[in-house]
Amino acid sequence: AFMSASTTPVVKKGYDVEEIRAQFPILKELVHGKPLVYFDNAATSQKPRRVIKAESAYYATINANVHRGVHTLSTKATEAQEAARETIRKHINAEHAHEVIFTSGTTASLNLAAFSLGQLLLKKGDEVLISGMEHHANIVPWQMACERHGAKLKVIPITDSGEWDLKQVPFSEKTRILAISHVSNTLGTINPIKELIAEAKKRSIITVVDGAQAIAHLDIDVQDLGCDLYAFSGHKAYGPTGTGVLYGREELLERMPPWQGGGEMIDVVTFEKTTYAKLPFKFEAGTPHIAGIIGLGEAFRWMEDYGKSAMAAHEHTLLEHATKELLAIDGLRIIGTAKEKVGVISFVIDGVHHYDLGTLLDQQGIAVRTGHHCTQPLMERFGVSGTTRASFACFNTVDEVEVMVAATRKAVKMLR
Ligand code: C6P
After folding, report:
1. Is residue 107 in contact with ligand 1, taking CB distance under 6 Å?
2. Which atom, in ligand 1's list, is nearest to the CA of 184?
3. CA of 182 to the centre of ligand 1 (A)
4. Tens digit of pLDDT for each residue in 296-336?
5. Is the beta carbon of 373 within 6 A of some atom in ligand 1?
6. Taking the complete model, does pTM exceed 0.85, yes or no?
7. CB-CB neighbours of 339 under 10 Å
8. How confident is the model over 352-361, as pLDDT tens digits?
9. Which positions are annotated as active-site residues?
10. 317: Cβ below 6 Å to ligand 1?
11. Over 70: is that where the pLDDT of 132 sits?
């Protein structure tokens, strides 16, 4: 697509997007005969060859169960899995590797948190505080915990720009848990979690962060943030599906009861009573997704080789360009105009249904997400039934943004 020089954003020097693209086999695929433009990275990112290789190398060369066998393969598999845990510990600056619990994803991490913290902390009349922009995965598990323990769910309201209304945070003497997203999957808003965590801590409230949309874009330092728990998925950060992490502060994890019972999470089992294994195994019942975890470790090493801040700067260039170009389309409104955003852009267009637009974009090889993005209360807050969402990753290009904008213009003409 043609672009005048004045509208061409300057991409950070030294960032070689073509070199990065070459590492993603899927980017060579055609969709409806067109080159794939993959703008659905908030749903799941694509995987670089190194991650795919690490996962298949486990199956091809060291496949065995972990922490169970005396044999060589089991030892190797265990070492590879635990190396991934250490990579992740360092990456998020956790104090101890045993504070990194492997799960199947953010959803599992948050369900673990809600179940276990509910058991530990919630009594009748207590309150759990979330925000109005939470993904269903950070709403429903807390609702379930509230129902179990007779507690109430409270919600931080959202401003018109898609930010927390910090003047109206309903902290109370009964608030026991604050569960908030670091970055909104629908709006792209980067939330001031450090400040709110500090406020919560003053009130002895336990803090849980949903980092699903932050992990691939922001440098995360759990000790600096001061959170008690931090959850994320591997598959949104160039890693395999079916992998995730719940980071927890040691002292709190020690007090939390286990969520699931089974193998590997026990110390001694008798029919009368079971004692539990030490951290992190207390929270890792059953055979984990060993291949996935090894792939996840590789994904984090891969991100570190490029640097998340360089990737984020590149994605921000795409966001700014897309914002400017899309806003020039008649009747288009962006939902989520916070000052601090990752490369996520949600929009609605007068007279155009998001589903129809998504379908027409797909015919041009462009993958976007349409609908409520698992944030129905947020859709209600903005008075829309859904949006079209483009979410960028390190391998996307300005040219791809141009292709999407041109295809959107074309679709609008057809649909109006
Ligand atoms: N959001 C999206 O398209 P899982 O599915 O467990 O990996 O992650 C759940 C989840 C939790 N919190 C946030 C903020 C999220 O964005 C997601 C997943 C995807 O926006 C799929 S619904």
Report:
1. yes
2. 14
3. 12
4. 999 999 999 999 999 999 999 999 999 999 999 999 999 99
5. yes
6. yes
7. 8
8. 999 999 999 9
9. 374
10. no
11. yes
